[in-house]
Design brief:
16 helices, ion transport, glutamate:sodium symporter activity, sodium, transmembrane, mainly alpha
């Protein structure tokens, strides 16, 4: 029996999967501990359910994921709207240094993934998926590029592989971050409680953050922000056609992100308008949750068995790279002090999962050794928009080279 669900029915299932994931996360502590997203939990449950139906010859479930791309575009456009040069400037040298560290890791993750894939005789695109696509990119970027690799490049099971890799990254990054931060602090006898934000640049950063904190969300601000998002998405399609004519192929969401970045910085430069960050974050979260839920419920888990061996090798190699990089590179580049140790712990969660995992890692270390306000500002600034933007461009470059 074949069960076909239309566009609206699929959306309803995706929303239901999100709430199921939220419920399970509230009841199962390990899911909360490792910051596994609710859409991933609920979506995987549904995907496993459809796998059982298929394997037992009961039914084949077909979903219409037409709405997945629009919600994906909303999410990535909000990232572009967060790319404020004012915020980057306020963060100062530390933000730039950590951005350099994050970009370097992205490049190394892709080089490692492609190199190992070629060495073991598998598709190098698999190496990209198990590289920065899902390690630094997480589930959101993984779902986007997985679908692209599957539909445009013929990599069977790419979306499923991406979700499995991203979930591994979330768990592994959370496991290794705390111990690495603790080791750096203990070995180098670092002192934490004296860390404070007393420089002019740090004070400016706090001022910028306070401006965002004082924003309000109402019907008008939500509608205005959503309108800007849709305008950026529309102009992004025009930019995409321009790029295509000159021989440059970029994923559609990058074009929208570029337009959104231009809009927010023109507004700040001219003072004519301001993007409401709270509205942007709210709409971005909605877009991400629905997008991820739809990506997860449509996973074809039976396709994982063909690449399980190579994938395990790639993911173990990425975990080793992350540990060594944060311990030897991130720590030294960030100044070899207490803040650097905390950022190194956070980088493990950030470089193999997502910003919430990074924050959880830093919480675990600072709760024992003392606060690090600098780390708590620097890492989210890079994680919120800079790295997603840059990571997508680097993945595009590697894809075109391959």
């Amino acid at each position: 029996m074949t069960v076909e669900l239309n566009m609206i029915q699929t959306l309803a299932i995706a929303i239901g999967a999100y709430f199921l994931g939220s419920f399970l996360k509230s009841k199962i502590s390990i899911l909360e501990k490792f910051c596994i997203p609710s859409p991933v939990i609920g979506g995987l449950v549904f995907a496993i359910f459809t796998l059982i139906l298929r394997q037992t010859n009961v039914a084949v479930v077909k979903l219409d994921t037409t709405l997945q791309d629009p919600f994906m575009l909303v999410f990535f456009t909000t990232i572009g709207l967060g790319a404020s040069f004012k915020m980057i400037k306020a963060g100062g040298k530390k933000v730039i240094l950590f951005f350099i560290a994050a970009i370097t890791l992205v490049i190394l993750q892709d080089i490692l993934g492609v190199t190992i894939s070629k060495a073991i005789g598998t598709n190098p695109l698999l190496g990209l998926i198990a590289g920065s696509v899902t390690m630094t990119g997480g589930h959101g970027t993984g779902a986007t590029w997985g679908a692209l690799f599957e539909n445009n490049y013929g990599l069977v099971g790419a979306s499923t592989i991406a979700m499995a890799s991203a979930t591994f990254g979330l768990i592994c990054g959370s496991l290794i971050g705390g111990p690495i931060g603790r080791r750096l602090i203990m070995k180098n006898k670092l002192q934490g409680p004296n860390a404070n934000l007393n420089t002019a640049k740090a004070e400016a950063a706090v001022d910028v953050a306070m401006e965002d904190a004082n924003e309000t969300i109402d019907t008008k601000s939500l509608f205005n922000t959503l309108s800007i998002i849709f305008i950026a998405m529309g102009l992004g399609t025009i930019l995409e056609s321009v790029f295509t004519k000159v021989g440059i192929t970029l994923p559609s969401y990058i074009d929208a992100m570029i337009i959104a970045c231009i809009i927010v910085n023109v507004g700040e430069k001219t003072g004519k308008f301001k993007i409401n960050k709270k509205c942007t974050d709210t709409l971005g979260t909605i877009g991400l949750n629905v997008f991820l839920s739809m990506a997860l419920i449509s996973l074809r888990l039976w396709e994982l068995q063909e690449v399980a061996g190579p994938l395990i090798i790639l993911l173990i190699a990425q975990a080793i790279l992350m540990g060594l990089f944060s311990y030897f590179i991130t720590y030294k580049l960030m100044g070899r002090d207490y803040d650097a140790a905390i950022i190194s712990a956070g980088h493990c969660g950030f470089g193999m999962g997502a910003t919430p995992n990074a924050m959880a890692n830093m919480d675990a270390v600072t709760s024992k050794f003392g606060p690090s306000p600098t780390a708590y500002f620097v890492l989210p600034v890079v994680g919120a928009f800079l790295i997603d933007f840059s990571n997508s461009l680097i993945i595009t470059l590697f894809t075109n080279i391959l």
